[in-house]
Amino acid sequence: MKHFDVLVLGAGSAGELIATTLAKAGRSVALVESLRVGGECAYVSCMPSKAMLRSAQVRKMAGDIVPLGAARHSVDLGEDFDAFRWAAIRRDGIAEYRIDEEAADRARKLGVELFRGKGKFTGVDQLLVNSDELTWTDLVISTGSTSTIPDIDGLSEIDFWTSDEALSAPESPASVLIVGGGPVGCELAQIFSRFGTKTTIVQFSEQLADKEHPDIASRLTENLRSEGVDILLNTNVLKVQTSAEKMTLVQLSNGSAVLVERVIIAAGRHPSTSELNLGALGIQVNERGALEIDATCRVAGQEHVWAAGDVTGIAPFTHTANYQGRLVVDNLLGGQNVANYDAIPRAIYTDPPVASVGIMHDENKEDGLISARVELSQLSRNSTDGGSGGLLILSADRVKGVLVGAAAIGPHADEWLAQATIAIRAQVPLSVLCDVVHAFPTYGEAFGQPLRELLTQLSRGMVASSNLTP
Questions:
Q1: Quick check: 60 and 194 in contact, CB under 8 A?
Q2: What is the CATH T-level fold of the domain 155-267, as seen in this structure?
Q3: In the structure, what pLDDT confidence band is assigned to residue 291 with cuts at 50, 70 and 90?
């Protein structure tokens, strides 16, 4: 039996950060991981998807500039040049060929003891990993999340992909059907479509990216459809079966059927907690399978158990995991830091990207918020870039007079929306935001008009309130 100051279960972005930082601070640290040190993002998710999206973007740009000839295949390398395979080679290099030894060696050199395998709790202070029994003073659970596989008749009988396989494939299928129109489904659709794959998205709800503002989601849908992606909303997959041609026949709730080479499941993710035997610690997960944590990232009801990353179910993004990881480290080293999730940004990295942060005004509800918007086609930078426009929507609290939400679709929106993230987190008054000078010509200028409109709405509201008779 081996005892450690801190045992970190799960070596994703949060777990790796926590383990290595605490080891550098002189703590004895065990890091337990059954897959890769660094987690999904570096090897089969965020990094490979962004690499493929960039390659697909460059391919489209080349095709737009030179409509005819080999430029449509990214570069002039002859008729047999396989653009997808070339992009996959670049992707695999960026994703370190899905091999984590470099990250594992870095952790070991810092003093982290790495245990390869699945951990299972066997007591209130004991974890079994293969034949190793580990104990701890403090425990950090950062086991991440797992792809949700919907209950579809026949799905277990076919060779379907999740995003992991889709973003590791060396070749592109001739046709794909993507189950799920969230961020992952939309990004995969653009990747495959731009490399010549006939692509269909099946989404159960009335809009793609159903966590986003409806008007932003509508623009995203228009963009993907304009590139040839077939998008079926308010539709479910009822059944899948292998056809005589070794294709997959997909039967849909709208009465139609689609024959494709590959089915990709992108129906979301859920916290990875079911195989841990958390009951041995006296811990119960919530209805989503997530660990409930307090503002310090301590697991509810536990003095020496902490959690970070997707396993908490809070804003499940890599940047949230890193944020929570830093909080856990600070608090294990004697701090009393608390989390603030008011301004956690999110993005869909299509071309153009979708980005949002905070909460948005719902025109169908009395939510105490006001909103304003601007078309990016009005911007001089859009003209110089030959852009296709876009949309920015801002929401503000009418009582506090501060920005509380922003949503956009347009060129580089994932970058320039960061100023809204800062404004929301710092609760900068609208009057100050209106006084900010943006460089000309930039996409950041988009904030000027809607911010002034919000300040005008706020002023009108204050005047109206002052004119009320007691």
A1: yes
A2: FAD/NAD(P)-binding domain (3.50.50)
A3: very high
